[in-house]
Amino acid sequence: MKILLDTCVSGNAIEELVDHGHDVLWSGSWPKDPGDVEILVTAHKDQRVLVTVDKDFDELAVLHGQLHSGIIRLVNVPAREQAVLCSHILDKQVQDLLNGAIITAGRQQIRGCQSEN
């Protein structure tokens, strides 16, 4: 699956996600942070699931109707556990994400909703 990791997600997650067969970009490696709207536009344009810890992306998608290709928001997940949780969600929720789901996940709970995108 194609993924765009937001800057706030640990860059250490890249290698593990790539090892699991995912095509991963990390906005933290970009020369300049373009801001939330542009990150979400880029992810959608490239048909990448956005992985973030920032709730602003949920608001952009739900309240403002910003187009996206699926969002995973990690809540209170330590950096060393982010890749494992992402891999688990990507394996179990692939179809929902391909359909534009927004999934909020913490260490103990995973919640999702279908987007109207």
Architecture blueprint of SSEs:
Blueprint: E1 2-5, H1 13-19, E2 23-26, H2 36-45, E3 49-52, H3 56-62, E4 71-74, H4 79-92, H5 94-98, E5 102-105, E6 110-113
Parallel strand pairs: 1-2, 1-3, 3-4, 4-5
Antiparallel strand pairs: 5-6
Mean pLDDT: 88
Give me the secondary-structure category.
alpha/beta
Regions with little confidence, pLDDT below 50 for 5+ residues: none
Provide the gyration radius in Å. 13 Å
Widest sheet: strand order?
2-1-3-4-5-6
Question: N-to-C SSE series?
Answer: EHEHEHEHHEE
- The shape is globular
End-to-end distance, in Å? 18 Å
Beta strands, count: 6
Biggest β-sheet description? 6 strands, mixed
Strand content: 15-25%
Short summary:
This protein is α/β, with parallel strands linked by helices.
Describe this entry's structure for a reader.
The chain has 5 helices and 6 strands; from the N terminus they run E-H-E-H-E-H-E-H-H-E-E. The protein has 117 residues and is of the alpha/beta class. The protein has a 6-stranded mixed beta sheet, with helices on both faces. Helix 1 packs parallel to helix 4. The longest helix is centred in the C-terminal third of the chain and has 14 residues. It is globular, with a radius of gyration of 13 Å. The two termini are 18 Å apart. The relative contact order is 0.19. The mean pLDDT is 88.
